[in-house]
Design a protein that fits this description.
Layout lengths: L1 E8 H5 L6 H6 L13 E5 L9 E5 L7 H7 L3 E9 L15 E3 L2 E9 L2 H10 L3 H4 L7 H11 L6 H18 L6 E8 L4 E7 L8 E3 L2 H7 L14 E4 L10 E3 L4 E6 L2 E6 L7
Antiparallel strand pairs: 1-4, 1-10, 2-3, 2-4, 5-6, 6-7, 7-8, 8-12, 9-10, 9-11, 12-13
Helix pairs in contact: 4-6, 6-7
Length: 275
């Protein structure tokens, strides 16, 4: 889940929605697995001009971490990333929990790079020398993040991610992997959010964004919680936080969306073949 808008308590984002990401960690309706209990993480930006995000991660299941409940009542933020993890084979350890951070950037990913252990060396060799030493964990997601950073994420996120995904597909297929990439990815610099929905087999996990909050208020005037959300509010979620027809739009397969200050722009996403 990602939130962008007026500063809001993390508790209102993580615990209060009917089908919050904490509830989804126990009862995912649309994910490939029902339970996501192999750790969690949140990343957020301060509303006083802080450009480097804070990160809190744990290997505990999100629904059973009392420290998360404590800090969520005190964190007020205009931009938050939250992720619950189901390991695709790498160890359950804090350094493997999302979101990942580099400078002012955050990154998270639902999905996997197929047969990652077979292609890991070839992929990490392509990571820039000044970046390689900052890889802390052992996940495919973090490797993909550092590939995107190598290819210019901080200057042009769509092009950098297209090049990173293109490299993964090229390396995977050279190893005989038919569908090397599956996933939805999200990244932010604290001002804008970019999300990507793509898989090699063209059957990617779900991804939704919230529609204009003023239109949603007109549809559901009885929901007082909507009055607390400012006009720039946007949510990006793997699963809708509540069953409200008209409130959510699915990000199309093979797309990139750019969300900034209550606006969004969706473009086709296509991996770029390596030079």
């Amino acid at each position: 889940m990602a939130y962008s808008g007026a500063p809001i308590l993390a508790d209102d984002l993580l615990f209060r929605p009917k089908h919050s990401i904490i509830d989804q960690s126990l009862h995912s309706d649309l994910g490939t697995v029902t339970t996501n209990g192999d750790g969690f993480g949140i990343g957020w930006y301060g509303h006083g001009g802080t450009t480097t995000p804070a990160v809190y991660k744990s290997t505990h299941p999100a629904w059973n971490d009392e420290n998360l409940r404590e800090i969520a009542r005190q964190i007020r933020t205009p931009l938050l990333f939250a992720h619950v993890r189901a390991s695709s084979g790498t160890p359950i350890q804090r350094s493997n929990c999302h979101p990942f951070r580099y400078g002012r950037w955050l990154w998270m990913h639902n999905g996997s790079l197929a047969q990652f252990q077979e292609v890991k060396r070839d992929l990490q060799v392509a990571v820039g020398p000044t970046l390689y030493g900052q890889i802390d964990g052992s996940t495919d997601t973090e490797t993909l993040f550092f590939l995107a950073l190598t290819f210019g994420l901080t200057d042009d996120p769509p092009t950098a991610v297209a090049r990173a995904v293109g490299l993964v597909e090229d390396v995977g297929r050279r190893h005989g992997i038919e569908y090397p990439v599956h996933g939805t990815m999200a990244t932010t610099d604290g001002d804008s959010i970019w999300v990507f929905r793509y898989s090699s087999e063209k059957n990617t996990s779900s991804l939704f964004y919230s529609n204009d909050v003023s239109q949603v208020r007109e549809l559901y005037p009885e929901l007082d919680t909507l009055e607390r959300l400012g006009p720039d509010t946007r949510f990006i979620v793997s699963e809708p936080l509540r069953d409200l027809p008209g409130a959510w739009t699915e990000v199309p397969e093979g797309s990139c969306a750019h969300i900034r200050r209550g606006t969004h722009d969706i473009q086709p996403f296509q991996p770029a073949a390596p030079a």
